[in-house]
């Protein structure tokens, strides 16, 4: 809880809701006749509407990327370390938009929303949405806000996939793309992890084939287990070792299945805390969006061919201990962009935090991000002059 | 701009694809992108240099050249450059092979250890030369291979590498007739334009 709002915070922010009544055709063949997107904005849009940055969130992110909703909030938004006045994504220079993606559970239309056609909650019947669908819906939000071209679109992990899709689908609608700790498609191992996460949810007897709210139930065990698994893969072996080692709960072994090691307690806590703020159907949808993303499939697996459509400048960032989206995966994108002759810079940041590093204010990471975006901002001001 | 870079600039055709290995703060690449409209990329591992490149808008990739260049396809660049860096890599001979695999042509510049002052320093003082241009001690120098103008020429001959042209300049990076006539003795920086 902040006693006072820090000087480099965007302060108290209020989410807004955009209503869309033009049907959105989805990759799966279904369409959404109407839907809502919840979003927040930080900073001021300039007169030519050229200084907007779109933030794309990852698996469990939402529209609350920076600042506080109330003075009683225990924590600021999920990327507050990077977004704010004077920060890497400088709200003195940019108008920053963060939204909750379709299928989410934080205010945008998703499985917990009411299906207007039935008057019932969507739950299991909510169609599977893809990265492509998200980007389409984000473009409509941009239209609504009067933004033709983004100065930059920024995202980490699954968010980075959305940025990549933007660069291919709407090449003239962004000047620069920042893709952090991401990949051009999931590896087999990553799909496998997602399947274990989904199975742990689906096999929870409280899941009721996805219609758990109707059954006054919450699949906390399954969702918690999925989050525990995810959490292990977001951290590096070293980071976990440094944090917990073999620290014990008791002075000696208890020889039972209670908590012996502190890491067990930590994981259980993380799993349980997650079930209080996240919806299991949304989690399943997000993992499917990850699995399906593969823009190179449009060009017979040739990533550089599909990226030849892009026109923006790219910055790619990876982290040395990230094994869920390893530096090699970012380098696949880098190499394809070089092959296609696109403007790209790439930084491989030394970090101990594993995949989670993309959420940490690692000094060199923030410097690289800030340097790249400062140039984007400077170019905007020279263009206006 | 350093005059060895000016010489390179004269040799580079406009609108080509250029890869600059160990590009440092991107001085040459910046110039080539602005004035020759090349599609250029730099490789670098120095954090400050990388940042300067990003600041200037020079496409730069953080990649350790000693760990290989397999990510670049055969003949995928018109020109591969390396200025004042070849002496810093583990296997300069294999690196030249790689450069010629990736690039149709290469331009390499290096400090000529056969310069008379280096020879005199070693001959009279009996100690490894330390100069303004190579200001390191033997134990902390990043320059782990020292070679001369002639050594490089010989390597090219052994590998059947064509020397398209060369230049040799002194400490002030000026071109004089005596340097041109005896480059191994008088040049401090050698510049080679090579191909297969």
From TrEMBL, chain B:
Tell me which CDD domains the record gives.
AdoMet_MTases
Q: Which InterPro entries match?
A: Methionine_synth_MetW, SAM-dependent_MTases_sf
Q: Record's superkingdom? A: Bacteria
- What is this protein's name? Methionine biosynthesis protein MetW
Which organism is this protein's natural source?
A: Marinomonas sp. (strain MWYL1)
